[in-house]
Design goal:
Blueprint lengths: L6 E3 L2 E3 L4 E2 L14 H12 L4 E8 L19 H13 L3 E7 L16 H6 L30 H20 L4 E6 L4 H6 L14 H4 L1 H13 L6 E6 L10 H13 L4 E5 L6 H5 L1
Parallel strand pairs: 3-4, 4-5, 5-6, 6-7, 7-8
Antiparallel strand pairs: 1-2
Helix pairs in contact: 1-2, 4-7
Length: 280
Amino acid sequence: MTLFAPFTLRGVPLRNRVVVSPMSQYRAQDGVANDWHLVHLGRFALGGAGLVFTEATAVQERGRRTHGDLVIWSDAHVDGLAAVTRFLQREGAVAESSSGTRGARPASADRGTERHRSMRRTSPSAASSRGPLWARAGSRTPRAGPTPAEMSAEDIREVIGAFRAAAERAREAGFRVIEVYAAHGLLLHQFYSPLSNRRRDGYGGDLEGRGRLAAEVAAAIREVWPDEYPLVFRLSVTDWHPDGWQVDDTIHLARRLKDLGVDAIACSAAASPDANARRA
């Protein structure tokens, strides 16, 4: 069967086409991977998967969803992730880092106040005292909670630099595939979706402008990511809104990303965080 046949993505051989998608665990301590992540991800390698994603790993401190997220914004986070990748590789699987940064509302949750039962059960009591992780957003758009400040040109350069630095750390940690998490209302989705991007500079307006940040992130990663290692983007293929991001827009952006060295698109679908506001 093709599913179980060996497969090569760019220059990385996979023992089969079984891919384990990212699953948020909210179990990191100060962003560092620990035994939980080793056991959680390691069991998929033992089960025979060819490619195993980490959960979304934040490239900026203010880009986390919760205080329990994995992160990769400093060298202090490399060793914990390296322990996971070594185990996966010993058991025949390839480790893939899912890197992303959130903006505004998706970065505002406090692990101690989430509704998910496992998050409540495992959250340290001090989590709520740390406060929410409010972040800036691509545009200043009204939503539930505080309205975010629009990112400046300097903020955007910092984001691009953070993805680049995260790719260097991912390589050091032993990852051989990177997925940029650019879907589900995270920051890059906020930029390319017309529902949430109301900028009037070179990062807004038409399809080319709104896709510019994703393109520049891809180019920055490719500057430091080994040529033989794949680069993947996860995109929300549609906003499921008549005024939002459409399938044809995804095709256009995917072709642009391919020219910059992106090897595959992980197709998802979810509305922009501002979709409900635009309906109103």
